[in-house]
Design goal:
Layout lengths: L1 H6 L9 H24 L8 H21 L5 H23 L12 H23 L7 H37 L5 H6 L2 H21 L7 H7 L3 H18 L1 H4 L5 H20 L10 H32 L3 H25 L4 H23 L6 H14 L10 H6 L2 H18 L2 H12 L3 H11 L1 H11 L2 E2 L7 H4 L4 H12 L9 E5 L11 E7 L5 E8 L5 E4 L1 E2 L12 H7 L4 E5 L1 E6 L2 E5 L2
Parallel strand pairs: 1-2
Antiparallel strand pairs: 2-3, 3-4, 4-5, 6-9, 7-8, 8-9
Helix pairs in contact: 2-3, 2-8, 3-4, 4-5, 5-6, 5-15, 6-8, 10-12, 10-13, 12-13, 12-14, 13-14, 14-15, 16-18, 18-19, 19-20, 21-23
Protein name: DUF4153 domain-containing protein
Keywords: Membrane, Transmembrane, Transmembrane helix
Organism: Sedimentitalea todarodis
Length: 600
């Protein structure tokens, strides 16, 4: 009998299943009610914003971390451990909140919230290992297991919450068919929904912890590591093609930086997955192991290009919080890449070295994220100084100046920068800048401000478009009156295309007048071709009738019944007169062996 009881006893420091489930459900319910209570007081003038920010940060952090730790360690120990961390993060967030005129504005900034989330995400596994065994704090295998279990528990618990609410809604709908609304009435108050969600989440976390021995990351890791050779091939082809394509063209595209960041992050993740928690669980087949090594060796090249892509964008437009975040991530990836490459080139024990690199990098991420929340790394001050300096030195035009973020998103530093710009405008008698500063301060949202600026500058933009836009056939004209009814978005799109240049240095746009649609006179319709930011040729059919509306259609090839893909050289061909008009049911523009006709 004694042995039988011991088989069913809870592990040391753990509670029996039912008791632990009830406690976890209670903790989750209390957390949900606390968050509901704070949300209900959002914007309450009787609660100082600084106090509300501190309370919200503390409650959210303490709830998340305490629930995550409870189970792997005893509940009381988890509550104490989470308390210290929640106080620490609350202090950091409160310091960061001082950058704003109203401290709770921090909660509306995705960059700042993301940094706080990164601190929680990276610190929690360290905290769990420390509570379990302080001597194992920097052991990769223990951190790997902790991170996996925390992620799996929360993911499965939230799936359970989603399933609970799905069943609740279906049950309510079913009972409403027979005029029974008891479920809807019970769930209608917000505090019930929050409290019940928290309780179900806590219950889910408790049950998943009981089933921890049946959970394993290895099937997923085994599948994902099979992607290493594919990523290696893609990265190799990309790096070989870069010299042929040229850096100027590569980084001229708006999406290059984001794409490179994503690719480098995927490569780093796959290398870590291939190495698993220890050598015994790492890739064993020669092909996969060799592919992992080669990918690690190539990482410095890929990540260096990632850093250069961000630098190129900063040179063009200056620093912003998003670009500082992108540069920070890019530098981390470059450090990963160089360290991984060095670990492989040193040969023996390279997998163990990479695991230790991962531990060191995790600590570095936590440190930098902490600095991000302090005045040491105030991204709003850095961004404001960059934008103001670039405008004062003529490197940024008025259209490129980040006035809305300065006035409404970059806190105290942004408002100080806007005041400095106003002083500059007053000194130089810049009426246009003064008008924009007044408008940005009075506007209630960004769209309203941008519309005011665009409509105020519409005559100037139309005049610039008329100056840049080549008109064909020879002798055809386009007057300013015709452009008055063109929507701002279309005029800006065409003007942006004209500001790009073709390979031979001419404007990246052209307008061809012609009777493409028989019901409209040839002088009141045209096809306009222009370059977009990716150097691709776009084309539209437009009807230009002063005081009688504006119509813009897509263009297709009636011969192939498809929307055409045109090379950039098409614009130069039309500017040189290498086209004609042909009938195709409607008239079509013939250029480069393709027919272009308005869609019906």
């Amino acid at each position: 009998m004694k042995n039988k009881r011991s088989d069913h006893a809870a592990p040391m420091g753990q509670m029996p299943g039912t008791e632990h489930r009830l406690i976890m459900a209670g903790l989750g319910g209390i957390a949900g009610l606390a968050l509901w209570g704070l949300g209900d007081r959002w914007g309450d003038p009787s609660v100082p914003p600084a106090l509300f920010l501190a309370l919200f940060t503390f409650v959210a952090t303490y709830s998340i971390v305490a629930l995550a730790l409870s189970g792997p360690v005893a509940v009381a120990r988890a509550l104490i451990g989470a308390l210290g961390f929640a106080v620490f993060l609350t202090l950091l967030v409160s310091i960061a909140g001082m950058r704003y005129m109203v401290t709770t504005d921090l909660l509306d900034e995705p960059v700042m919230v993301s940094v706080a989330a990164v601190i929680v995400l990276f610190c929690t596994p360290f905290l769990l290992v420390w509570l379990q065994d302080r001597s194992a704090l920097l052991r990769y295998d223990r951190l790997f297991d902790a991170a996996w279990m925390l992620t799996a528990r929360y993911a499965l618990a939230w799936v359970f919450v989603a399933a609970f609410w799905l069943i609740a809604f279906l049950s309510d709908a079913l009972l409403e068919l027979v005029d029974i609304e008891v479920i809807d009435s019970f769930l209608r108050p917000g505090w019930v929904r929050f409290g019940l969600s928290g309780a179900v989440l806590g219950l889910g976390l408790a049950v998943v912890q009981e089933l921890r021995h049946t959970l394993s990351p290895y099937p997923l890791l085994r599948l994902l590591r099979l992607l290493v050779p594919l990523v290696l091939v893609v990265v190799s082809v990309f790096l070989l093609a870069v010299p042929l394509r040229g850096l100027d063209r590569l980084f001229g595209e708006f999406s290059a930086g984001g794409t490179l960041l994503g690719a480098a992050a995927v490569a780093v993740s796959l290398i870590s997955m291939a190495l698993d928690r220890d050598d015994r669980m790492a890739v064993q087949t020669r092909g996969l192991r060799s592919a992992t090594q080669v990918l690690a060796v190539l990482m410095p090249l890929l990540t260096a290009l990632t850093v250069w892509a961000v630098i190129t964008r900063v040179r063009q437009y200056g620093w912003t919080p998003d670009r500082i975040m992108a540069m920070t991530v890019a530098l981390f990836l470059l450090t990963y890449g160089m360290a991984y490459c060095g670990a492989v080139l040193l040969r023996g024990g390279w997998m163990s070295r990479i695991r230790q690199i991962n531990v060191a990098m995790a600590v570095l991420v936590i440190a930098v994220a902490g600095l991000w929340m302090t005045p040491v790394l105030d991204v709003y001050r850095i961004s404001t100084a960059s934008q103001v300096s670039r405008f004062e030195t003529g490197r940024t035009t008025m259209d490129q100046l980040a006035l809305w973020p300065l006035a409404h998103e970059w806190g105290r530093a942004g408002k100080s920068g806007l005041a400095a710009l106003q002083s500059t405008a007053d000194t130089s008698d810049s009426t246009g800048l003064i008008q924009r500063i007044v408008a940005v301060r009075e506007a209630t949202n960004r769209y309203q401000f941008e519309q005011q600026v665009q409509h105020r500058d519409l005559p100037e933009r139309a005049a610039e478009l008329l100056e840049l836009l080549p008109i064909r056939p020879a002798g055809a004209v386009l007057d300013a009156e015709t452009l008055q009814d063109i929507p701002v978005f279309a005029l800006n799109m065409w003007l942006n295309g004209c500001r790009h240049v073709t390979a031979d240095g001419r404007p990246g746009c052209v307008l061809v007048k012609g009777a493409f649609v028989p019901s409209v006179s040839a002088d009141e319709q045209a096809m306009i071709l222009f370059l977009d930011d990716d150097a691709d040729t776009r084309i539209s059919h437009v009807v230009l009738r002063p005081d009688d509306g504006f119509v813009m259609r897509d263009v297709f090839d009636p011969a192939t019944r498809a929307w055409p893909s045109l090379p950039a050289a098409t614009i130069s061909e039309i500017q040189d007169g290498a086209f004609d008009l042909r009938p195709s049911g409607v008239n079509a523009l013939s250029v480069g062996g393709k027919l272009l006709a308005p869609s019906q």
